[in-house]
Prior knowledge:
- The chain is mainly alpha-helical.
- The protein has two domains: 1-189, Growth Hormone, Chain: A (Up-down Bundle); 191-389, MFS general substrate transporter like domains (Growth Hormone, Chain: A), CATH 1.20.1250.
- It is built from 18 helices and no strands.
- The longest helix has 31 residues, at 7-37.
- The two termini are 32 Å apart.
Amino acid sequence: MLLLRNKSIALLFAGQALYWSCSMIGITLTALVGLQLAPLNVLATLPLALLVLGNLLAVQPLSLFMQRHSRRPGLMLGASCGVAGGLLSALGVWLGDFAILCLGALPLGAYQASAMYYRFAALEAVDEAHKGRATAYVIGGGVLAALLAPTLALWSQNALGTPFVGAYLLIAGLACCAVVLMARLREGALPAPASGGLAAMTMLLRRPLLRAAIATTAVGHGLMILVMNATPLAMQSCGLSLEAGAQVIQWHMLGMFLPAFVAGPLVDRLGSLNVAVLGSLILLVSASIALSGLGQGHFLASSFLLGLGWNLMLVAGTTLLAAGHSEAERGNAQGMMELGNGTVAAVGSFASGALIGTFGWGAVNLGMLPLLGLVLLIVLPLRRLAFAR
Length: 389
């Protein structure tokens, strides 16, 4: 199996598991900590918003840094930001200082940005016939986090005398382990960087393959964030229990990561364009199930398929991007994809509460349809062209 044979893929798989463990612990606890420390309740989620901002600020500079200096130092730098963010956040909680807690969120966002490049590093560690598997297996590292992170979050929040300090120290410790892993990553040949700037990005966006790749991952990621954030609010309004909500979220996380071990072979055998179409159709089915009823079974099935569709679209879009640029252009192309993903994630995060509060759960799912239609309009002509050849 590629995951076991290739040392770089194994290291990136483990690094992904560490990152998602940090992320899930933070998502589980940060809003609660913010509610305790914020001077106003409306500011409780400000640290999470600043994490998104840190991601957006770091994603393009990190990509260009790795283009010039290689993957290893870039990924080590990103994981080091996770260490710094965890320590700052722990200090903020220990001192009861909301400003320091918010400050710690910014480097945690930079760690998130660097972890999104693990799947691109995987592409560079294998030959053409295994790129889909490599991408998917690295994303699949989140399975370990889905199984372990909830338990770690519950244990660490009261591990020390001051509640929640232990959780952020654990995040710093896990990120430190990621630094060690990334230091052992093998480097390939370092390509000469292409010119950057708006002109280079515009030239890349003129290529149909790159437009399709970026649209596929951006729409899949944005819709996943939008609906995932709205799901607990919708379940609460339907009178479903917290236990039911926890089960739905767990199945959603399994849907996000477990299918990675199938998505990779699918891309390698069927092609990225076909898998992008499949992922879009699965998200359409997810929306249809959500619109068909408000029972726990409806939420569970739609959330699992939401994760599955996201997985397929992320793997397909990533491998499709690699086919549309040269080695010298990878910094610009990959940075542009991650900037798009981060931007739509930020919009989805902020829009989910407003949409469900104003228009309801049905409107959230109906809103998926035009965006998925846009992806199909972009991808299907390329698929027909490829089939005709």
